[in-house]
Design goal:
Layout lengths: L10 E5 L2 E5 L9 E3 L4 E4 L11 H7 L13 H12 L20 E7 L10 E6 L4 E7 L3 H6 L6 H4 L2 E7 L2 H7 L3 H22 L3 E5 L4 H8 L6 E9 L3
Antiparallel strand pairs: 1-2, 3-4, 4-7, 5-6, 5-8, 6-7, 8-10, 9-10
Amino acid sequence: MRRIRSLCLPVFVGIAGVGILIVQTAFSREDVVEAEQEKIARLPAPKLQGAMSLEEAIKKRRCVRKFKDKPLALEQLSQLLWAANGVTGRDVRFRAAPSAGALHPLDFYAVVGKDSVPGLDAGVWHYNPEEHTISLGAKGDLRDALKDVSLKQRQIARAEVVIVVTVEYERTTVKYGNRGKRYALLDAGFAAENLFLQVQTLDLASCVIGAFKDADVSRLLKLPEKHRPILIMTIGHAE
């Protein structure tokens, strides 16, 4: 694996038979690296100060189902993922949203459409909170197919990014037994509200969705067997 500092628009170059993706952000960071079999994007650092107060974000929070055809910036996606599950303390147990026993059973997948986030390929990007990176799994624009396995809810196909929240119950039940499943679902609610409020501060819009065919979503997005989808959030610019 090699890391290259970004200086230009997204291009692919070949070095010793290994593809390396160079992506520029507004800050020209070392942001995307590609190993031989896995593409990893380093996200911009989250901002810790915003222009909107918490109280205003709470007041403005609404579910929005109609979106403009307007891309999200990589910085916005970074901020959203950090707000949902980012590391906020001295080690990885301390996250933006609370979790019973600091066991963190949730994983977050960003389903990105074609040209939805400049610099990112269309596909399913898995968030790694410890490194604040995302890695590409299933490839291609899957939003329309995801709509089809989610009771044809059209906002999924129209959103620029769709966040799919999954739960690995075993991370919690290993300590709390069967009641750990309840705690894991509570964790999902905490993280979703964080996302909702961060969406407002970024002048974006979102809608939360719970109606979908679990097994079909898992197959479509090629999720790991233990990562069970429990929540979908559509994100974009309000129409």
